[in-house]
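To the structural biology subgroup,

Please find below the input and predicted structure for Pyrroline-5-carboxylate reductase, which we are adding to the shared reference set this quarter. The sequence is reproduced verbatim from the submission form. If anyone notices a discrepancy with their own records, reply to this email rather than editing the shared folder directly, so we keep one authoritative version.
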Amino acid sequence: MKIAIIGAGNLGLSIANGILNSNGATTMYLTKRDTKSIIDFEKHNKVTVTNDNRLAIQNSDILIFAVQPVHFAAILEDVKDLLTENHVIISTITGFGIDKIEAVIGKDNYIVRSMPNTAISVGKSMTCICSNEKGKKRIDLTKAIFNRMGHCMEIPENQMQAATVICASGIAFWMRLIRATTQGAIQLGFDAQEAQELAMHTCNGAANLLIESGNHPEQEIDRVTTPMGCTITGLNEMEHQGLSSSLIRGIIASYDKITEFKTK
Ligand SMILES: NC(=O)c1ccc[n+]([C@@H]2O[C@H](COP(=O)([O-])OP(=O)(O)OC[C@H]3O[C@@H](n4cnc5c(N)ncnc54)[C@H](OP(=O)(O)O)[C@@H]3O)[C@@H](O)[C@H]2O)c1
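Predicted structure (tokenized):
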């Protein structure tokens, strides 16, 4: 695959690393206006670093746009005459709908919109994607790209904001749960570093149990709750204090906020 990443900043470079580490590109162009900070990427013999978006697009098939929203329309305008049947346009830009992309370049290109999260930098992003009508033919290809950097799911575009709450804000929600568990562990006598190690690896194990078994969380809970035992006692106390309810309410509050941004 000949890949261009237009806007090699935080997210663009994480994607570049994910693709390079999994040997997913035959050539890769990385662009930004000031290329000094990324010139070292040229140590990879497949990578060309440039500030020339047009050059990158002319030499690539998969175009991943990772610029800030304010820059996106102008960049598209500047390169739209170069876009061909071969190009797959993948936008990572938050809140920038497919209709806005089509308003600049038309409906005749394969357009995919994606929402990765920050775990993409460690190859573990939950990435949601949707496409325009034409782009449906390139969904499998896009999934294959993002599955190299975690897990990818196609969703309807009208669920992109909900996905942003669950997957992008979700990173912060899970961090708080891990931090709270860490604080509990410190109170039980572990030092801070040990406590965090216990909390994060237990969290990782819990997620992997579900991923690999396909089980419902409650099935895994049943396996560790002895009648009258310590786990069910702790769990019930957490629920009396509103654990599930507060998480659900927080998710809904985030969604209300993101919807409010959209309508303003
Ligand atoms: N970070 C995340 O976790 C995340 C998750 C999901 C979606 N997103 C979306 O991804 C996009 C990028 O986020 P980010 O955090 O990676 O931002 P960022 O670090 O600011 O990266 C944007 C890059 O675009 C470059 N750029 C600006 N104008 C350009 C131009 N004309 N041509 C080529 N490159 C240009 C900038 O470099 P120069 O100034 O040197 O040109 C910068 O390196 C945003 O739209 C954001 O909504 C981010």
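Summary notes: Strands lie at 2-6, 27-31, 47-50, 62-65, 88-91, 110-115, 125-131, 150-154. The radius of gyration is 21 Å.

Regards,
Lab coordination
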